[in-house]
Automatic annotation (TrEMBL):
Organism for this UniProt entry: Natranaerobius thermophilus (strain ATCC BAA-1301 / DSM 18059 / JW/NM-WN-LF)
Protein name: Uncharacterized protein
Gene3D superfamilies per record: Uncharacterised protein family UPF0261, NC domain (3.40.50.12030), Uncharacterised protein family UPF0261, NN domain (3.40.50.12020)
Pfam families from the UniProt entry: UPF0261, UPF0261_C
Signal peptide: none
Domain of life of the organism encoding this protein: Bacteria
Domain UPF0261 stretches: 4-177, 185-402
InterPro entries registered for this protein in UniProt: Tobamovirus_resist_UPF0261, UPF0261, UPF0261_C, UPF0261_N
Amino acid sequence: MAQQVVLIGTLDTKGEEFYFIKKLIENNGLETFVIDTGVQGEPYFRPDITAEEVAKKGGTSLKKLREDSDRGQAMEVMSHGASRTVTELYQQGKVNGVISLGGSAGTTIGTSAMRALPVGIPKMMVSTFASGNTEPYVGVKDISMMYSVVDISGVNQLSRQILANAANGISGMVTGEIPETEEQKPLIAATMFGVTTSCVTRAREYLEDRGYEVLVFHATGTGGRAMESLIESGFIQGVLDITTTEWCDELVGGVLSAGPNRLEAASKKGIPQVVSTGALDMVNFGPIDTVPDEFRNRQLYKHNPTVTLMRTTSEENKQLGEIVAKKLNASTGPAALFLPLKGVSMIDVEGQPFHGPEEDQTLFDAIRSNLDQDKVELIEKNTDINDDDFAVAMAEKLIEMMNDS
């Protein structure tokens, strides 16, 4: 069967443009499958899945959406319906790639459906919003955003070139070969921050020397969410979650939160995980003049012109310890928690600006009091987190658990 590209979009307002890229993709030797998400008018050409079918999968009827004339509700329903539709097609083996075009509504609906697909499936979104903040559309998935330059309103001299590039781009993604590695190594996910780099680098080198492949995620909110998503999707065989700092931002209100589900995926999947308290001494903000007024009298550290760090308090560390323990207590597979008793980051050691023995002690005591040590092994080391021995000990423990599994 020929490979198939799914087109998702509003055929009542962007039908001419979709028909243009549909023909180009088919000229490249691929099949197309069109999902109509237009609400107001009739489609420019006949789709494979009608807007009525999409609305029904979204929980209502196209007739009602038209009667209500509520744009926000229509976007929500069609986003949900398109996501369900494309998920079902993928489960049937009918999605080799997906492309969409649009402004705010089309981008919202198209990328919602794309985010429902696993990482690795080619995804192309041609959008008037692609030059701005794309995080709400991309999330943690591998969506290629192409800026349309002009509004998607007809096929003209400029848009013809841009749409052709998009059509040929998705065609190339689908038909291009992915080089195979000589061997498939077990995949390990690790988390890192600038202040835990030495630890993660040493642990990664140790694991790679022993035949493992390590994916390192920068603990910046999207990094943590991306890791959790890959774990949920079954890509990862072991987790070295050294840097759990994103919970500081979630708890206190920093800018790098990974959300309330951080530290859950490995526990639910039952895969081996070794966790530590990396960078739980800090909350992240942007330039120092962007720090909220309520925190201006706190202990701040200008990491660089665009990043300001705030030291966590004892009370916050107590809550962080309780959260980490609670998350790990839900583990359905092997889990270990390592405590670096002499500092949780590069700047939480003696002589550095965030050195806080009292705050760290509160964190460790909260973990000891709340961790179910019948389920989670607690290992304490009289070193700071960036000590080579600490890094190697975590790597060795993960290997041991993965071998036992």
